[in-house]
Amino acid sequence: MREHLHAANSAAASQAAAAPSTKPPAAPQPAPPTSTPPARELIFRAQGLTKVYGAGEVQVQALRGIDLELHAGEFVVLLGPSGSGKSTLLNILGGLDVPSSGQVWYCGQDLSRASDAALTRFRREHVGFVFQFYNLIPSLTARENVAIVTEIAPDPLEPAQALALVGLEKRLDHFPAQLSGGEQQRVAIARAIAKRPAVMLCDEPTGALDSATGVLVLQALERVNAEMGTTTVIITHNADIARMAERVLWMQDGQIVREQRNAQRLAAQELRW
């Protein structure tokens, strides 16, 4: 009897194994969502900017209908020959000048219609400038030149901290005459970043320097951009510098005539000219 029951159970198990499963197939798992980098905050937007100097028959049209957007943390290089409008555009973005027509907004604030007092506050609180010539006070040390800015900024870096960011932590108490050209320019950069600006606007920062010294200055700007997230715009006629930019804009005759994104950026230390 037990043998008959065992045989019957074995036969039933074999039939169950052979029978097709009635369990529905597992639903395919959805692919993991593709992560897209968050959109960068729009810092500057310019629309239809023109700038005319002079009057009557001696008018010079420096800008001819510029449209431009700059985003938080971008590193942008403006290229073009002398007289192409690069410095004029930079001055308008920095609130040093106003357009003849068109509009420019900074984080939604219309700079083209701002009062002189509002532009002064904008420059003081949000923009760091670096020019070809260093504009340091000869009778003040590197630390004291930077401290001039920290005394009026709402949330400044310590002068020593700003100078350390540009590699001059051992030159704090040196006067400009005791510094090389590249070191003086880096003091100027430290002075510009000491107020923690959202934007750095640099007009030919390596124009008066040799290649090796210029690379040191660019390394300082590169580090500030990376560590502080500062939107950085450099204007230059040196095409080699454009290789370190995220985005390159070419200007000619007051217009942006070409734009390019660098798929592979070079570090400043890799540049040679």
TrEMBL record:
Gene3D superfamilies: P-loop containing nucleotide triphosphate hydrolases. The keyword Membrane applies. Residues 7-21 have a biased composition (Low complexity). Residues 1-39 are annotated as: Disordered. The keyword Cell membrane applies. GO terms for molecular function: ATP binding; ATP hydrolysis activity; transmembrane transporter activity. One of its GO terms (cellular component) is membrane protein complex. GO terms for biological process: response to antibiotic. Keywords: Antibiotic resistance, ATP-binding, Cell membrane, Membrane, Nucleotide-binding, Transmembrane, Transmembrane helix, Transport. It comes from the Bacteria. PROSITE patterns: ABC_TRANSPORTER_1, ABC_TRANSPORTER_2. It holds the Pfam family ABC_tran. Residues 44-271 form the ABC transporter domain. Residues 22-36 have a biased composition (Pro residues). SUPFAM superfamilies: P-loop containing nucleoside triphosphate hydrolases. Belongs to the ABC transporter superfamily. Macrolide exporter (TC 3.A.1.122) family. This is ABC transporter. It comes from Vandammella animalimorsus. The lineage of its organism: Bacteria, Pseudomonadati, Pseudomonadota, Betaproteobacteria, Burkholderiales.
